[in-house]
Amino acid sequence: MEDKQQAHIVLIGFMGTGKSTISQLLAKRLDCKAVDLDFEIECLSGQTIPELFTAKGEVAFRALETEVLLNSLHSRDRLIIATGGGAVLAPQNCKVMQELGYVVALKAEAEQIISRVSQDSSRPLLQGNVQERVYKLLEDRKHAYDFAHLTIDTTNLTTNEVVDQIWNHFH
Ligand code: S3P
């Protein structure tokens, strides 16, 4: 990354840590555009994420995820990119995020994640017993977000306080 103040900001973190919401607020604050990779994948495929998982499987989903991530990172405009929680599973994705963006990891306590993700059923990896699935995936991905330039624990923060903390790193 050449200049922190010009680099894309890439939000990573487990499902339900607030990446999409924070990306919108931060984009407004920094007067740039927010991009949500899940939304871009849905536009590109013409399917919702659950439909895509059912029709083509996770491998096809991950390929599209990498494609939209790379497209966004190569944009000339500065973007605030909200990634999906699994975008970090490909080591190559992490490398390019680190090189072309300022990577911010959002963390939250498991109970808070469970309460947030239980409110919608759009996540194929959390079908069945949500609580069990979250604990299992949190364990599997324990160190997946460690490569970030900055990590923020959002557990006791309001969305505006999270945005303030990120903002402070640029000023
Ligand atoms: C996934 C996270 C989801 C979405 C897909 C897979 C994951 O995005 O990309 O369901 O593997 O963690 P959010 O993190 O925005 O929920």
UniProtKB/TrEMBL annotation:
Q: What is its main location?
A: cytoplasm
- Superkingdom of origin organism: Bacteria
How it assembles, according to the record, is:
Monomer.
Enumerate the InterPro entries for this protein.
P-loop_NTPase (IPR027417), Shikimate/glucono_kinase (IPR031322), Shikimate_kinase/TSH1 (IPR000623), Shikimate_kinase_CS (IPR023000)
Q: Which residues bind Mg(2+)?
A: 20
Cofactors demanded by this protein: Mg(2+)
This protein is called Shikimate kinase
Q: Which GO terms describe its cellular component?
A: cytosol
Please report the organism this UniProt entry assigns to the protein: Paenibacillus baekrokdamisoli
Q: Kindly list the positions annotated as binding substrate.
A: 38, 62, 85, 141
Q: Which reaction does it catalyse?
A: shikimate + ATP = 3-phosphoshikimate + ADP + H(+)
Q: Where does ATP bind?
A: 16-21, 123
What class does this enzyme belong to in the EC scheme?
A: transferase
Which stretches are transmembrane?
none
